[in-house]
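Supplementary Methods, section 5.1.

A reviewer requested that the exact input to the structure prediction be made available. We therefore reproduce it here, unchanged from the version used in the analyses.
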Amino acid sequence: MKMHNPPHPGEVLRTLCLEPLGLTVTETARALGVSRKTLSAILNGRAGISPEMAVRLSIAFDTSAESWLNQQALFDLWEAEKKRGRLKVKKLSAA
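The structure derived from this sequence is encoded token-by-token as follows.
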């Protein structure tokens, strides 16, 4: 069953990881070994979670990389489904 309007993983990261621990973007980026700009783009929904970032987050927050990638996939699929009606695709069937 597809989730209805899933949150961007950056929103989840901010509300469930950074805010409860009182972490700033700067110190979190430093701990993850990425730039502040990179982390900020994720937190603000301008960039997605890559497999490498998923591994970094799993190490830093003791979570699974799969959970981060699954969140990203659900979000991406939701966004793609919203454009379904505008896609020019023909149904294929056996001859």
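The helical segments are 9-21, 25-32, 36-43, 51-61, 65-81. These observations are discussed further in the main text.
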